[in-house]
Amino acid sequence: MSSWKLTKALRDQIYRYATVKQTGVSLRQMVQFGSKPSPGSLFHASHFAVHELPIRLSHRVKDLETLPNGLAKEPAIQTVRNWYAQSFEELTSLEEPVIKDLEMADILSGEKQYEETAKRQVSSQGSKRPYFFSDDGIVIDRRSHGSVSGGGGAAGASGGVSEDENEVHDLNSAHRHVLIPRPRRHYYIPTPKDIVYPSEVVDYNKLVTKVLTKIKRRHDATVTTIARGVQSWKRKKNFTYLDNSVNQFLDRFYLSRIGIRMLIGQTIALNQQAQGNMYSDDYVGIICLRTNVMEVAQDAIDAARFACEEHYDIMEAPPVQLYCPEDLEFMYVPGHLVHMLFETLKNSLRATIEFHQRLHPNTAIEDIHYPPVKIIVAEGLEDITVKVSDEGGGIPRSTIPLVWTYFYTSAEQRIEEYEPTYSSGSFKPPFMGLGVGLPHSRLYARYFSGDLKLISMEGYGTDVYLHLNRLSSSSEPLQ
């Protein structure tokens, strides 16, 4: 990887793709595959991902190269740019599958639509359903037992008619000589399940899964690497805070990354389900049709407390009390919910420990009696709301706007002092000091039309409100 170079020809190709509009996918469209997707529908999804991802990657490469005031020249920024460019190259280099059987080619063109007549029966299972999640250094594994946290620091639309694969997208007048294959309009297109698909279909799905798995692993450390680059640049420029344009770029970049990883993760998981490597009636890819809020919240609690104990080298982190209906379930991405709760809890646990250390300067950290962090979950018609309450001293009112800017942190360990240790997907983020936790979590909430809000009482504590949209029909907020 170290010998890889971004050539002028590849850059020109990337900039041409960056003129093409991105195509959003709704959560509801993603679950239309069902828990047992057909190879034909997976073929459409794989083809969509192979053609849509380069467009999304190209927009981000262009953004990274046009950052102002020397930020684009930071080594860490260029590292991420190269990751995106290399992934773009790998996807655009994949050969288009050729279906020799004319009848099968007609079916896979998307022109023939097959309506699903049998409704999938969601099986009733135990309260602890098998689940594995690993992303951005958070690992949750309860496939074989109750809940294991840790591992590296802590743990819509209906199917439509597809366009011909050979049709091209006509770009602006400066690039009319460039032919860019236009992807299918829909991520999901129904195809029959009761036929035998040729080897070309199965082989293409396996190839795409292999390539996407490699790309996903390559980008594991993107959030932290971007953070290191911006923090280094901010220190060189002697900036106290980031200006609005850089914050807007980071919002746009990180939100796009969530969408890219969602599309990659969903495509990989769907293919794994089809190959029998991952199966549960509750899941369609990485989307859980019956996400149990209490289970996911408990996973996040275990992971955050484990990370806190490891960071402060204490036997037991402050207690966390969870108030949530046991049977509260809705369709969502458990990995996203884990991210948001984990980051919010990390902040609350850190604030609780450090505030009460200041209140009891002569008491050993192990001997301090910490008040509990409380998580209260309420169910509404539109939203499921999660409130995380701590007694960590709160935030001064003048500082609250800075909480939503990137790389503002009161943690003692700064990101420029932190060297990430990752290889082959074993990336481990720091417990604190990144300064991206809350704004990044808000993006996760907003990705599916939710939100994250904060109310503070200086001298007492902070309440964070996480609103989760349960309508699940909105499409991705692409920029």
Name some characteristics of this structure.
479 residues; alpha+beta; Butyryl-CoA Dehydrogenase, subunit A, domain 3; Heat Shock Protein 90; 5-stranded mixed β-sheet; 3-stranded antiparallel β-sheet; 12 helices; 13 strands; globular; Protein-serine/threonine kinase; transferase; BCKD/PDK
Secondary structure layout:
Blueprint: H1 8-17, H2 27-30, H3 39-65, H4 75-92, H5 102-108, E1 132-135, E2 138-141, E3 148-149, E4 168-169, E5 180-181, H6 199-218, H7 222-236, H8 244-274, E6 283-284, E7 287-292, H9 293-312, E8 320-323, E9 329-332, H10 334-359, E10 373-379, E11 383-390, H11 400-403, H12 437-447, E12 451-457, E13 461-469
Parallel strand pairs: 8-10
Antiparallel strand pairs: 1-2, 2-3, 4-5, 6-7, 7-9, 10-11, 11-13, 12-13
Helix pairs in contact: 1-3, 3-4, 3-6, 3-8, 4-7, 6-8, 8-12, 9-10, 10-12
Give a verbal description of the structure.
Belongs to the PDK/BCKDK protein kinase family. It is found in: Mitochondrion matrix. Pfam families: BCDHK_Adom3, HATPase_c. Residues 144-165 are annotated as: Disordered. By secondary structure, the protein is an alpha+beta fold. The protein has two domains: 8-113 and 159-274, Alpha-ketoacid/pyruvate dehydrogenase kinase, N-terminal domain (Butyryl-CoA Dehydrogenase, subunit A, domain 3), CATH 1.20.140.20; 286-469, Heat Shock Protein 90. The protein is 40% helix and 13% strand. The chain has twelve helices and 13 strands. It has helices spanning 8-17, 27-30, 39-65, 75-92, 102-108, 199-218, 222-236, 244-274, 293-312, 334-359, 400-403, 437-447; strands at 132-135, 138-141, 148-149, 168-169, 180-181, 283-284, 287-292, 320-323, 329-332, 373-379, 383-390, 451-457, 461-469. The protein has a five-stranded mixed sheet. α3 (39-65) runs antiparallel to α4 (75-92). The longest helix has 31 residues, at 244-274. The model is unreliable at 111-127, 145-178 and 412-427 (pLDDT under 50).
